[in-house]
Amino acid sequence: MSNALRLARGPFGRVALLDMDRPLVRHAHPHCHILLKVEGADTQFAVGNRIVPLTDESAVLINAWEPHSYSHHQNQPATIILALYIEPRWLGEFRPNWKASGAPDFFTRSVDATSPAIRRLTRQLAEAMVHQPGGADEHERLLADLMIAVIERFADWRGVPSSLRAAASAIIDPRIRKAVLWMQADPGAVSDMNSIAVASGLSRAQFFRLFEASLGVSPRVYLNVLRLERAVIAVSDGTASFTSVSQTLGFSVPAHFSRFFHDHAGSPPSTFRNVARLQSVDFETLR
């Protein structure tokens, strides 16, 4: 069963060390998302309409809101993956242009060759998370070094992506904007897409077409992103029961929430909460 081995969270977003032996459903994240192999079998992800390899010498690069899934093959050995979910605002503190890491074309390729420095920093961060789970400052320092190496190698960060100019001038249909605000206000209250389409004054087909044209993802994927990000916060930081969390997010049965979380985050919520709590413990103080 796939599990989170360690989790680090902070102003940078989050970093998960995942032991993966099962597929993940098609999903997206509002982050700059990088996947790096730590050890185990070579594997692969579906990014957009392409299958791309994750190996010792390749990284998978996923732009914010870009749909993707983990394509683990049956009977394939497990892979330990360092999954980075990085906030563009944090990256902007290094260089202003790096705020563009939230753009849909910050990475122009979904897979690229790593460097010895990236492989070394990946291993160092993974080892620090395992051996010093409470070392938040050290984790952030190593992550900063890793992200600098990643962006300088993989992104044309010196120029503002053309899509930002297009996005600045784009006008989202007001009916879609209203639907987005409804979803953001309470994703757990959204029972089905038909009701949102009708409330928006659109047919289901029109709603799906306009939504994806405006935001680059389907309404269902967008809603699931909102639910997952709230679930991550509730599971990591909160003490509420998973039954309560599932009800708040609109799941009628707690088992459905657990399956949703596992299929999107790569770990059961119980394991995710346990490793999140390790981050608040500095084992050096216990010696």
Automatic annotation (TrEMBL):
Query: What residue range is the signal peptide?
Result: none
Top-level division of the source organism's lineage = Bacteria
Kindly give the PROSITE patterns that the UniProt entry links to this protein.
HTH_ARAC_FAMILY_2 (PS01124)
Domain named HTH araC/xylS-type is located at 177-275
Q: List the keywords (alphabetical).
A: DNA-binding, Transcription, Transcription regulation
State if S-adenosyl-L-methionine is listed as a keyword.
Answer: no
Question: SMART domains attached here?
Answer: HTH_ARAC
Keyword Nucleotidyltransferase assigned: no
Question: SUPFAM superfamilies from the entry?
Answer: Homeodomain-like (SSF46689), Regulatory protein AraC (SSF51215)
Q: Which PANTHER family match?
A: HTH-TYPE TRANSCRIPTIONAL ACTIVATOR RHAS-RELATED, TRANSCRIPTIONAL REGULATORY PROTEIN
Descriptive protein name: AraC family transcriptional regulator
Q: Tell me what organism the protein belongs to.
A: Fulvimarina uroteuthidis
Question: Which lineage ranks, top first, belong to the organism behind this chain?
Answer: Bacteria, Pseudomonadati, Pseudomonadota, Alphaproteobacteria, Hyphomicrobiales
